[in-house]
Amino acid sequence: MKRMIYAAALMVWAGGAVAQDVMRMAVTTSFHNSGLADVLLPVIAQDLDLEVQLLVVGTGQALKLGQAGDVDAILVHSRSAEEAFVEEGYGPHRREIMYNDFVFIGPDDDPARISEAKNAAGALQAIAQTEAVFVSRGDDSGTHKKELSLWRAAAEEPAEFGSWYKAVGAGMGAALNTASGLDAYILSDRASWLNFGNKGDLAILFSGDPVLFNQYAYLPVSATRHPHVKAELAEKLEGWLTSARAAELINGYTVSGETLFSFNAKP
Fold first, then answer.
1. Distance, CA of 168 to CA of 5 (rounded, Å)
2. How many CA atoms lie within 13 A of 7 on its CB side?
3. What fold, for 2-99+214-263?
4. pLDDT tens digits for 80-99?
5. Which residues 6+ apart lie within 8 Å of 163 measured at CB?
6. Torsion angle, CA of 80/173/53/89, rounded to 10 degrees?
7. How much is the average pLDDT of 61-89?
8. What angle do CA 72, 137, 104 make, to 5 degrees?
9. Scanning 9, 26, 71, 246, which has its CA 20 to 30 A from the CA of 60?
10. How high is the pLDDT of residue 18?
């Protein structure tokens, strides 16, 4: 099982001088693709003398890494799965850090006319009715979990869809590349889309429905269940991620003049 999990993980290290302390954190591909990690990691290393090694995976795999005690903390975006992680004793608590939103991307000529939809359910129903090509992450990530919940809310069942529905089993960047190549619709977090370079003829066509809210949360891994995890370092990082210093960097991070995340951690 561990071999399968690690095979899909991308390891990322903080740059600069070697820090005294080292910890491992599993994060989502959407967080990594946003570019925010490149801003935060060097400052964390400077402020805390702490090197944070990232394992970049989907939310589902990040939670599995935490359950196995293979990381010291996780940063993910699927509240129900996070709450189950804590309830089952794999983590002592869940701490909200920042948010953005999900958006529907599609070809700028919008063959399904989702830009005219009144809500997210209507946008998905329009895609299903016209059988316009739709790319799904299909990887048990937070984005994939959100997409499936939106289909259910729209009274649609992806398992019954035809070849127009393409589950690629890949991270956000790879899925966006596939959508760009196919001129297809896709659900993306806003940060990954704004930082994505291969947009082609795609554009944001629908956003703003409150159900598209996208919260990111930090979960330390339980030292009770896994005594070897670096709980003190995870706590140290949590204190920094919920600080005014982190708020300034997160709120100040922009791409092409657009803010990618909003800090909402509570003291």
1. 17
2. 4
3. D-Maltodextrin-Binding Protein; domain 2 (3.40.190)
4. 999 999 999 999 999 999 99
5. none
6. 10
7. 97
8. 110
9. 246
10. 62
Considering the entire predicted model, what is its pTM?
Answer: 0.88
Of 254, 256, 246, 255, nearest in space to 264 by CA = 246
Look-up: residue for tokens 């830009």?
A: 115
Neighbouring CB atoms inside 10 A of 217's CB total 22
Three-class DSSP category at 157:
coil
Fold match, 2-99+214-263 / 102-212: yes
Contacts with 210 (C-beta within 8 Å, 6 or more apart), sequence order: none
Chain segment 37-62, per-residue pLDDT in tens: 999 999 999 999 999 999 999 899 99
140-149 mean pLDDT: 93
Domain extents in the chain? 2-99+214-263, 102-212
In 3D, which of 237, 217, 219, 215 has the Cα closest to residue 88?
219
Q: Provide CB contacts within 8 A for 124, sequence distance 6+.
A: 150, 151, 154, 156
8-state DSSP, 113: -
Instruction: Say which CATH architecture domain 102-212 belongs to.
Output: 3-Layer(aba) Sandwich (3.40)
Mean pLDDT of 56-71: 95
Residue in the structure block whose two tokens are 């003049």:
257
Instruction: Compute the half-sphere exposure of residue 184: CA atoms within 13 Å on the CB side of its CA.
Output: 23
The Cα 218–Cα 74 span in angstroms is 6
* Cα gap 199→193, rounded to integer Å: 8
